[in-house]
Amino acid sequence: VLALVTTRDDDAALAARCASGDRAAQRDLFLRSRTAVHRTLFRVLGGNQDVEDLLQETYLAVFRSMGSYGGRASLTTWCCAIATNLALSHLRRRRATPLAEIEVESDAPSADRLVRARHAVVRLYRALDRIDPVQRVAFALAVIDGRSMAEVAELTGASVPAVKTQVWRARKALDKRAAADPLLREYLHDLAGGDDAEEAG
Amino acid sequence: MTDERLPPPPVEPLPDLTWARLERQLWATLDAPVVVAPPSPRARWRWPVAAAVSVAAAAAVALAWPSRPDDGAELTSRAPTTMPSRVATAAAETELSVGDASIRLAPFSALYLHGGDRGVGMILDRGQASFEVAPRMGRPPFVVDAGAVRVTVVGTGFTVTRLGDGAIVDVRHGVVEVLADGRRALVRAGESWDAEGVHPTVTDGAATATAATATGPTATGPTATDPTGTGPTATDPTPDDRRRPDGAAEPTTDRAAGPGLRRQGRLRRRRRPRGVRSCSRLGRVSGPGRSSGALGCQWAVRGRSLGLRARRPRPRPHPGAALPASVPAGQQRRGRPYVARTSAALNLWRTRGAPVPITRLSGGAREPASNVPNRSTGVSMIAIRILALAALFLIAACGSGDGNNQGTIDAPDGTGDGGIGDGDGGTGPDAGTTGMCMAGGPQCNNCVDDDGDGQIDGDDLECTGALDNDENSFATGIPGDNIDQVDQDCFFDGNSGSGNDGCSIHVCCLLGAPDRASCPFGANRYDPAECVSPETEACIELCAPLAPPGCDCFGCCTVCDPVTNICRDILTNPAVAPNCNDSNLNDPTACPSCVKRTDCGTTCDPAECVLCPGQDPGDLPETCNNMNECPVGSMACGPGISCGTGRFCANGCCIDGVP
After folding, report:
1. Which letter does DSSP use for residue B605 in this model?
2. Of A152-161, B53-62, B187-196, B425-434, which range is least confident?
3. For B14-32, how does the pLDDT look when each residue is reduced to its tens digit (9 = 90+)?
4. DSSP assignment of B552-567, as one string?
């Protein structure tokens, strides 16, 4: 995986070139940030469905609003923030669509575990479809993707306490739905354990 | 329920093709003259995007490639809805040319082909590909994408090895520009680029040394720079990707065991599986020897009974472009891997512009890329000729699928009078001298499996050289050849008689007869004492280069049964053994044993990865990594590696053609 780290000075210079319409610079930024942007969208949406359209919208927005880049965050984070906002808008306007079941073909000893994990993910995102999109975004980025509250706050434009509140509310709503779903309950427990462990660390 | 914690959901990567399409549409949309009015927040992106996409779609239909000099690296397609061809390889590598670029795709690799008559773009989906690109001379650059790495070419030869979302780029000659992580780097001849930067390429000699001591001949080059053994495998757990060729640093148990545990493979019985490994999205093979007629379709076929033109994999890495290294032993096919494909007439990109033929490089010969006409003006007469020639190939190949000889050559009858009457190479002098098979040439150089045994031309153990016009037996089908039972001359020079080659020996010396009583032919002239006399310098100089590996100058060859892999030294001269063929190699009556002359000829040794007649790379020890070597002084050959003018590719090694 290519490193995505770059200095803010580089970001500022690159942003300026992108804003001036330098296609090479735009391509550089696209290649540099696309993995992180895709990851953000994938986590929020729960799959690659609609991701391509949102990626397109994200980078159109990035390049057309490049002049507003202030340099407070890295360019990649800035792109991810735009993607997060677009994903949020997307969630608000779309109707909940159940994700397709994912078949796992494997003879490996852990295949059963993988299948269960996939099914748990499907159920988790089905449950997320039924909660507030803002809470969903916060939960997906913080709990599922394992980002820090500060990072999520940076991406969503909210304060850290607000993000914590959204995550807590999301978890509460999910726990309620998981009461009758042992697999989802188990998965939430595992995710919470990982999250807790990370925060403790 | 288990005690094990369920893993977090993995991020499923987007295919490279999606990224390419997305980028293409993005730039087209940005370039479109869109007037963005201040919209309501909810509708902010809808209409501008819809309008932009519409404009982009119209623009994309009209444009195959952007011609702006600074933008040539884009993969803009003339028709975004037209999907590119996908070429995927199985255990064998394949070679193709697109326009004026030659591409060698390593085993277990996949490549998307984009573009039209205004430019060429590639996406290396997995594995490794080597490129020879003619100087662009003002034409749009040649672009290769490999994950997040973009290689822009002006005119050069280079190799790209996919590693996860990145790649390794090795440049053989010329200069390429690599764009990755927002940074550009120029990589020059003899240099490699990876995520850590530019550094000198591991030299071929060093690579060979490494191969000899550790992981086989392919464990070098770009793949050796992935010592973790992770790369793509770590990021994509699909079975195909687990077989990616970049696991060089993971020697199998056999290889780790070293030469002492090399499998001799002499008594092992094996099957030759058949089956289609892969095909492009545009079609699929319905069975061995049958073409689906799919555009852009290319497939790797396992097994021998394939009526199409089939070639063996390249036996060893091209200098400076190491083949992908280890493939997990359990996933390697047994037997000889073949790659077969449609003719050039069928391998057309589905572009809406001028078709770009994906031509195969027949006979391993390759026209220098610089000699290929500029394709920017559309379909040239050269391309038309290629298509016509390919159509002839296909017709001939289909005709041979049932074992009948329906080509332009007379059916062989084993009597030496078949087909070409003058023994001068048949329909054209090039057929026997350029190393490139051609329709209408002698049976052992006409790109056709004339005897229906699944082996073509130099891969057929019954072929002795480019002029051999009888693929069905050890006879050459050349009038005046193979007629003397007693006095043996150079077996591979296309005639009987030692007058022109300086080689002369009594046949019973070859048969190992201890005395006249046991000499079945010309006993009255047989003197065992003369058998110890060495061949003349003239004989060695003229005839030894004509002998394929495993044969001495007189046709005493170490031949291995293709089915049983039992190898014997047999006299293949049809004047002495007229009934010997590939179906009775183990019959000492039909195929008499012989004593090879050690001072004139070429040896074969599977333990040293040198194939004997009748063997294929699958018969070699694991340490050979499914690729053969050649005797000292002989170069390896195969698809894409020509022996050059005047030479012949015999079982993976170049031998001289008859002067």
Report:
1. B
2. B425-434
3. 888 788 888 888 888 888 7
4. BTTSEEEEE-TTT--E
The Cα–Cα gap between B30 and B419 comes to 64
DSSP secondary-structure letter at B629? Answer: B
Residue B27 at interface with chain A, using a CB cutoff of 8 Å: yes
Chain-chain contact of B49 with A60 (C-beta, under 8 angstroms): yes
B256: left (phi over 0), alpha (psi -120 to 50) or beta: alpha
Tens-place pLDDT, residues A84-95: 999 998 888 775
Kindly determine whether residue A23 and residue B27, on different chains, have CB atoms separated by under 8 Å. yes
Closest CA to A30 of B356, B104, B30, B477: B30
Residue with the bigger pLDDT between B88 and B540: it is: B540
Stated as kind and residue range, the H or E segment containing A126 is helix A111-128
Backbone angles phi, psi at B87, to 5 degrees: -115, 125
Residue A84 is encoded by which pair of tokens?
């997060």
Which residues lie closer than 8 Å to B1 by C-beta, 6 or more apart? A182, A186
Residues in B closer than 8 angstroms to A63, CB to CB, are 30
Give, for B27, the enclosing helix (H) or strand (E).
helix B16-31
Residue whose pair of structure tokens reads 């190992």 in the numeric block = B512
How far is Cα B477 from Cα B460, in angstroms, rounded to an integer?
15
Question: Which chain A residues are Cβ-neighbours of B6 within 8 angstroms?
Answer: 113, 116-117, 120, 186-187, 190
Q: Which residue has the tokens 């039909």?
A: B590
Query: Band of the pLDDT at B652, cuts 50, 70, 90?
Result: confident
- Confirm if A44 and A140 have CB atoms less than 8 A apart: yes
CA B169/CA B380 separation, integer angstroms: 32
Q: Which residue in chain B has the smallest CA separation from A14?
A: B182
Q: Cα–Cα distance between B477 and B501 in angstroms, integer? A: 19
A24 touches B: beta carbon within 8 Å:
yes
Report how far apart the first and last C-alpha atoms of chain A are (Å, whole number): 25
Q: Which residues of B touch A112 (CB under 8 A)?
A: 2
Is B150 within 8 Å of A120 when comparing Cβ atoms? no
B529 burial via Cβ count (<10 Å: 0-12, 13-18, 19+) = exposed
CA end-to-end span of chain B:
76
Tracing tokens 């006095």 back to the chain, one arrives at B487
DSSP 8-state symbol, B594: -
Beta-carbon count within 10 A of B186 CB: 12
B179 vs B242 pLDDT, higher one: B179
| Closest residue on chain A to B46 (Cα) | A57
Q: CA geometry: angle at B447 spanning B443 and B453, to 5°?
A: 70
Q: 3-state SS string over B322-372?
A: CCCCCCCHHHCCCCCEEEEECCCCCCECCCCCCCCEEECCHHHCCCCHHHC
Residue A96 · residue A128 · CB < 8 Å: no
Please give the backbone phi and psi of residue B451, each rounded to the nearest 5 degrees, phi first. -100, 5
The answer for residues whose C-beta is within 8 angstroms of residue B29's C-beta and 6 or more apart is A56, A60, B49, B52, B53, B55, B56
Interatomic CA distance for residues B473 and B88, integer angstroms? 35
B47 touches chain A (CB under 8 A): no
Indicate the SS3 state at residue B301.
strand
Tell me the CB-side half-sphere exposure of residue B314, using CA atoms within 13 A. 30
Find the helix or strand (DSSP H, E) in which B191 lies: strand B191-194
Contact B472, B485 (CB under 8 A): no
CA distance B81 to B61: 9
